[in-house]
Amino acid sequence: MASGTKIRNLARLLDASDAPLWVIDSAGKLVYLSAGVSLWLGVEADSLLDRRSVAGTPISDDPLDALAASLSPPQGFTQRGTASLRVQPPTIGDRRIEPMEVRFVRAGSDVGMTFAIGGSFDDRVVDSDLQDAVALRQRLDSWRKRHARLAAIATAGVSPAARRTRARLQVAASTRTHVGFFGPPGSGGESIAARIHQLSAPSELLVRVDGPLMDAELLDATMMPLINQLADSREARATALVRGLEEMPGDAQRRLAELLASYPERLRLLALCGQRPSLLQEPFDEVLASSEVLQLSEKPNRGIDGRLIEVLCSLSVVSEPLAARVEDIPLLAAAVVDARHAAGEGRAERVSRAALDALVIYPWPGNFEELDGAIRHAIRTAPRESIGVEHLPLVIRSYRVATGPAAPPPPISLDDAVQRYEMRLINESLDLSGGNRAKAARRLGISRARLLRRIAESEKE
Amino acid sequence: MIDSLPEPTTMRRWIVCESGDRWLQALGRFAPGLMPHPLVATVTPAEADSQGPDGLAALLAGQERAVVLWEVQRSHLLRCCDGLAATASRQPKILQLVAAGGLSECELIALTEFNAAVTLRHPEQLPSLAAMIHGYFANPA
Question: Is the pLDDT of residue A415 over 70?
Fold first, then answer.
């Protein structure tokens, strides 16, 4: 292949190449078309020379004008200076021309000349870091959707408790503020809190903290990436979602309060707490400070640091135990089955009435999460569309309320009862008489001898 | 002579998901000291084909309290995220630790969202988890 710096060498190379290449001048006219263009379009390249090739301009009825116009760069090319376009030339007669990927490049300043090269370009591949970031984001979105789905089901229902919870959540979702979630374990609080975060501050960083497992140092280590972001930019905002705040050691709670005070308005707390707020009783951290001797039987104190209680006073959401929302249980069970069925899990589509009865009777100490787990178990077990009692976990299907006949009352002796009553009256009368037996006998309307006999009989028995 | 074998009911499983054996060796050294009396740590490597969600679920079957340590590298960050999420979804009470180096802060934050309780960089940080592990196993399932 000829090489050189003369323009003739370039002309020879272009003629030898089968790549479609054309040039549009500053007036928008085709001033060069390579042999590859003729092969692609099936028309003589000379017939297209000096025809206008500008996007959006009016053209004549001449099909060659339409063909020349189809070779124009896309709108906006003038500003960008480069563009890629899949060019689809119009049909000539009854002959259809295959589309082709074309890269347009402007040469020279201002309007200049436009070079168009047809071919296959694979330069839209993003770098692997970006691809990984996108994939990570997709996984996070999927994980958040799962929480959103669980939160929607956990708060569904027609009971007053469910309605109250939803009303509070609506307020929490509409504003970015600290929120305390109070409720029994297994109420789906974590999914609900995650959902509130998505609704109230979707673009904000979120870090989850396992409260009971933290000490001040571990808390710092866990929250360090978040704190760095807050320190780097005054615009940055972040949320800490703390599980089991009331079981978080005192030193960790104090550190959390310090961090919240260091970044007021910017660092938000979503705290999952127990059923009722209680103040942390000091000393507490001494127990964990001597962790080498902590035994399984030891129970750390529970409670929330006073400063954190003040923070969480802004808004609290209280979830009721599932046992207090009995009328919601069939609805929740059906919703879980629907969600699982939609996700392609198992064949079950509905819950039989007998199974619903068993679900309603069961006291649900594990609350919504236990119900969710039970339905998942049933879906895996049920071979057909309906979930029966036999598909429920053993602990639920075997649960029985103590409904047997009441135990018969112990037999009573009328004589004994009368005797006890008689002695009670005698004792009262003796007390009122200051121990004087004659006087007591008179008060009771009996003889002194009878009184003495009754006392003697009582002492003998 | 074996003086005494551990009582099976006191054994708690630690599962290590990693490509080499760095963290397996480290846990073999430190995990016994992290456990509260009378519990005993049994450190198990998850073989490469067991590190998927199903394989790990099989290793965790019947375990109410157990620890999974994920060695996370950028090259298999997504696989670890899938594993963390799957375990958190199936058995939320399992304690998941992450051993990671070379990840960005945003990636570390994302890992906590998938229920990673704490992120480690080096094995010498393991003893500092004593209070955390004690607290975890002291809490009844």
Answer: yes
